[in-house]
Design brief:
Elements: H1 5-8, E1 13-19, H2 24-34, E2 40-47, H3 53-60, E3 65-67, H4 76-89, E4 94-97, H5 106-111, E5 116-120, H6 132-138, E6 143-150, E7 160-167, H7 174-198
Parallel strand pairs: 1-2, 1-4, 2-3, 4-5
Antiparallel strand pairs: 5-6, 6-7
Helix pairs in contact: 2-7
Bound molecules: glycinamide ribonucleotide.
Length: 201
Amino acid sequence: MTIHPAQEAKARQRVAILISGNGTNMVEIVHARKRGALDADIALVISDNPNAPGLGKAKKLGCRTFVAEYAAGAPREENERSIVEAIEQNNVDWIVLAGFMRILSASFVRRFPGRIVNIHPSLLPAFPGAHAIKDAFEAGADITGVTIHIVDELVDHGPIIAQEEVPVLPGDTLETLETRIHATEHALYPKTLQALFTEDI
Ligand code: GAR
């Protein structure tokens, strides 16, 4: 019997996308899914921020959304409880961080080992943290870029699965550099996720 390549492929993966803000990477991932460039189902979009502009975009795209509001001063594990429930109830295989600006607890990371992916706007290990583009720009870096990695228990850290350089051009402002980095992210994230979900990378 001939096995058709489609039958050999990994089972279709179910994905939760976690956002905190604009959600432009989330939008690109959903668009890739809709045009058939990403063989995965977007089970839901989760935001820790009820006012994230990305939430409205996700709803408009027909995604199920869930808001996990963080209580100030509460332990991380407690704030993450509703996220864990939402992920487990929706049979999610992969957790895709797309501008999710909370640090995940070690117990959360251990619960989904090797199943959390993050995108970061620098060439890690350079410039971790919440202001990577600005930090690289202000440091006078000639080259910065984008990193996609599996999340481990440290911040902006873990096995790197894709990296793309973005040169800092003469005459760049922070805004022009940001625009090119985001464009790089928007192309790289869906492509890398497709490889991760369908090939053994
Ligand atoms: C992206 O540039 C992403 O790399 C960054 O937040 C932005 C979210 O944009 N993430 C981090 O800095 C994580 N440390 P988006 O909400 O428009 O996708």
